[in-house]
Design a protein that fits this description.
By secondary structure, the protein is α/β, with parallel strands linked by helices. The chain has helices at about 15-25, 40-50, 65-80, 95-100, 120-125, 165-185, and strands at about 1-10, 30-35, 55, 85, 105-110, 130-140, 150-155. Helix 2 (about 40-50) links the parallel strand 2 and strand 3 (about 55). The structure holds 5-O-phosphono-beta-D-ribofuranosylamine.
């Protein structure tokens, strides 16, 4: 079974969906580590409850990205991690991790890329008056939400859609699509 590390910065509902899928056997992988750049983030409590190791860091305690990514790499190597799964990790991945994990870093983004990359994709879709948006799962490269697409699914945006209602639709799609897509990918490589 492939060993995975999830990277997250916030509430961690996708981390939870992945962990639940591992426990139920729908995702045949070993979830070995949470990497989190925000001490106090809710995702840390989720990992603690599940007994999953955490590496929590503060970027300001390092002189640059290379330095904290080297530390992350050490943690990944110790656990022989095969794939890095980004789930609301609010940082660009740098060359230190990209070169060690080519085509082994995956991200989920709450829009139909290449539409609405970057921060607040849900707000961007509403602001643009889009009639549809969705979820994209893609390989990570050096750009912001730019790597090759692995899976995409569309959501209709109703005329009376609010940020809350769209966010809820997107999240429930993500929680279903991410584990299923990872299962296909990790068991085919
Ligand atoms: C998700 O919408 C994901 O697509 C984006 O960040 C959000 C993370 O949510 N990259 P959560 O922390 O998993 O609840």
């Amino acid at each position: 079974m492939k060993k995975i590390a999830v990277f997250a910065s916030g509430s961690g509902s996708n981390f939870q969906a992945i962990a639940d899928a591992v426990v139920s056997g729908k995702l045949q992988a070993e979830l070995k580590l949470l990497v989190c750049d925000r001490p106090g983030a809710q995702v840390i409590n989720r990992a603690q409850k599940l007994g999953i190791d955490q590496f929590v860091f503060l970027s300001k305690n390092y002189s640059n990205k290379e330095e904290f990514e080297r530390e992350i790499l050490k943690q990944l190597r110790e656990r022989e991690i095969d794939f890095l799964i980004l789930a609301g990790y609010m940082r660009l991945i740098g060359p230190t991790l990209l070169s060690e994990y080519p085509e082994r870093i995956i991200n989920i983004h709450p829009s139909l890329l290449p539409a609405f990359p970057g921060k607040d994709a849900i707000g961007q879709a509403l602001e643009a008056g889009a009639s549809r948006s969705g979820v994209t799962i893609h390989f990570v490269d050096e750009g912001m939400d730019t790597g090759p697409v692995i899976a995409q699914q569309t959501i209709e945006i109703g005329y009376n859609e609010t940020r809350e209602s769209l966010q809820e639709k997107i999240h429930s799609l993500e929680h279903q699509l991410y584990p299923v897509t990872l299962q296909k990918l990790l068991t085919s490589i």
